[in-house]
Amino acid sequence: MIAILKTLRFLTVAAILTVPAVRLQAQALDLPDYGAFETDDSLRINPDIVYEAAGTDVPIPSFINRSANRIKLNGADWSALRAKTASPDSTVSVVHIGDSHIQAEIGTSVTRDLLQLRFGNAGRGLVAPLRLSGTNQPHDYSFRSTRTWSADKFMKGPWRNEMGFNGMSITLQGRNGDVILSTAETDDQYNPFNHITLYHTGAMTVAGITDDMGISCPAEIVTAPGVTELLLFTPRAQVKVDFVTDGEPFTLFGATLSTDRPGVIYHAIGNNGATYSAYNRLPSVGTGVSSLHPDLIIISLGANEAFGKLDLAAFRASVTKLIATLRRENPSAQLLIVTPMECQRRRRVRRRTSYSVNANILPLRNELLRIAEKEHVAVYDCYAVAGGAGASSKWLSAALYGKDRVHHTASGYRLAGRLLYDALINQLEEK
């Protein structure tokens, strides 16, 4: 249904574009064997997430606590956000920050699609060179290159080059570069864009822009320190941007794909293994997020902290610091904290593996609720919505948790994305 509605929405544009007959060959990359890792740390940094067919018709199991599926404002004023979503001529920017649950973009794709069906599609949003850096990437876009790049890992320091506000960093080897950006990953998806914003360090001169057929794409090019904007005269679902650098190290962080239409643009920033303290190490996280002009910033973190030593004082300091940074650089944006749901830990004794509930999740969830109330930040209690204590076993029995009992299956992520959408709509359309 989502694919049909998207196709109908862009029917006028589709009539003047040619269906791709060939795809430009991108450089092959050897990705890690995610299933080969054994420790909890490596499983969280290199998750074994299985992608399945997408969809938003998600059944809601009986053990889901529907009465808890709401957003508690804690005194935050969402009236301006409600007014903006109610205006048919406005563009609403959502930035969702998180860990591996967000990097895979299975759940956020459901939330994004449903919000855009409700309020209009302003574009795909932020895309990142995840596959080029050797990690898993969402399936509704591609970010490729025929050139050679070196990657710095967000969760593995020290970084050789500057790290992007989104936790991404690939550096070009040589002066001549290109990127191939596409939102046409499958035959049933069509989501064209006419505005590309590239985030980078170092200067670049665009040498040419072509579509998937190699036809030149006229565009206006606007440059500023660290940002290059390409305003295409005609929407495209795939473009190749050839460029030349000035000889200094050129590091690319990602791109935003948007349109001139009003509606919702939903940016996801996800990094496997990420924590509140990890994002605090990014000096540009606040200013970088501000470049996306957010009206709502959603933070889904806390699960990875549960696999280390429980230190609530340090956790509290990290959470309040990230809140303060995002507020300072994005004063007009509303914040929403999402608590982690119950998961399980693995134990290996004499080559035997057993699982038990991760006891650190509950106190971390409770601390997030206290911080949100104290800081007057809205909160979405995913722990309670998922079913509270004992939910991980129910999700596992319903094939909503994966084999590591930390990450969901695709069905589990789609359920979480649908539930978050329902909670957002209930709050945004509250009279």
Describe this structure in words.
The protein has 431 residues and is α+β, with helices and mostly antiparallel strands. It has helices spanning 2-9, 11-14, 40-45, 79-86, 100-103, 106-119, 276-280, 285-290, 312-329, 361-375, 382-386, 391-397, 410-428, and strands at residues 71-72, 91-98, 125-127, 142-144, 149-151, 170-172, 176-182, 193-201, 204-211, 219-224, 227-236, 238-245, 251-258, 263-270, 296-300, 334-338, 344-349, 352-357, 378-380. Strands 3, 5, 6, 8, 10, 11 and 13 form a 7-stranded antiparallel β-sheet that branches. The longest helix has 19 residues, at 410-428.
Task: Please provide a brief summary of the model.
The chain is of the alpha+beta class. The protein contains 13 helices and 19 strands. Helix 9 links the parallel strand 15 and strand 16 (334-338).
What does the largest sheet look like? Answer: 7 strands, antiparallel
Estimate what percentage of residues fall within beta strands. 25-35%
What class, by secondary structure content? alpha+beta
Give the mean pLDDT: 88
Instruction: Please report the total strand number as a whole number.
Output: 19
**Ranges with pLDDT <50 over ≥5 residues?**
1-38
Q: What is the secondary structure topology, with strand pairs?
A:
Blueprint: H1 2-9, H2 11-14, H3 40-45, E1 71-72, H4 79-86, E2 91-98, H5 100-103, H6 106-119, E3 125-127, E4 142-144, E5 149-151, E6 170-172, E7 176-182, E8 193-201, E9 204-211, E10 219-224, E11 227-236, E12 238-245, E13 251-258, E14 263-270, H7 276-280, H8 285-290, E15 296-300, H9 312-329, E16 334-338, E17 344-349, E18 352-357, H10 361-375, E19 378-380, H11 382-386, H12 391-397, H13 410-428
Helix pairs in contact: 6-13, 9-10
